[in-house]
Amino acid sequence: QVTLKESGPVLVKPTETLTLTCTVSGFSLSNARMGVSWIRQPPGKALEWLAHIFSNDEKSYSTSLKSRLTISKDTSKSQVVLTMTNMDPVDTATYYCARIEELWFGEHYFDYWGQGTLVTVSS
Amino acid sequence: SYELTQPPSVSVSPGQTARITCSGDALPKKYAYWYQQKSGQAPVLVIYEDSKRPSGIPERFSGSSSGTMATLTISGAQVEDEADYYCYSTDSSGNHSLFGGGTKLTVL
What we know:
The complex is a heterodimer. By secondary structure, chain A is mainly β. Chain A has strands at 3-7, 11-12, 18-25, 34-41, 48-54, 59-61, 69-74, 79-84, 93-104, 107-113, 117-121. In chain A, strands 2, 4, 5, 6, 9, 10 and 11 form a seven-stranded mixed sheet that branches. A four-stranded antiparallel sheet of chain A has the order 1-3-8-7, with no helix packed on it. In chain A, a hairpin with a 4-residue loop joins strand 5 and strand 6. Chain A starts with a strand and ends with a strand. By secondary structure, chain B is mainly β. Helix content of chain B is 0%, strand content 44%. Chain B is built from no helices and nine strands. Chain B has strands at residues 9-12, 18-23, 33-37, 44-47, 61-66, 69-74, 83-90, 97-99, 103-107. The model of chain B has no long low-confidence stretch (mean pLDDT 96). The interface between A and B is medium-sized, with 23 and 26 residues.
């Protein structure tokens, strides 16, 4: 069955760089019309899409966070990595990775989600 | 920037019909998707491509879309349907994803 699992630090200091890894199983990162997104949710607040990467290595980033984000994948390891630079306490959130199902270019959605990992930014 | 707008809260009694709306300028050309998120859990897809229901989702969940508004309808809402509901879509370029602000559904 399809599973996704996020891993990374639970605590980072302000100005540090956050690196999160999403390890997937039950599908391949090379499958056509599939990809992985990162989504976050500050405590008590709404979901916020951050970035995605598709099997053809096409990438896209949230406009507001683009300068701080980098997404990449290692198909052989079934992993997608997100880095976010210059972390701030407002970046405290649960970070989710989710599988993308793409219908056609520009039309896609998330069909499977990881359990999420809470990242706290504090000195 | 593009936004999807949802009401912050909806409240119904058990057995009543709950309707949650989502408005966005690109919705006439883009599908809407709906996610249910219960407290402390990851979101779960309940409606895709405006009106389709994934396997395992109860029939009381339905979706529709007309013009710039998509609607999630829960017919005969149950106490266990209490959750936050998020609509999701892509912008007109197709390059960016976004969620609505979420609607807290109370069933009591």
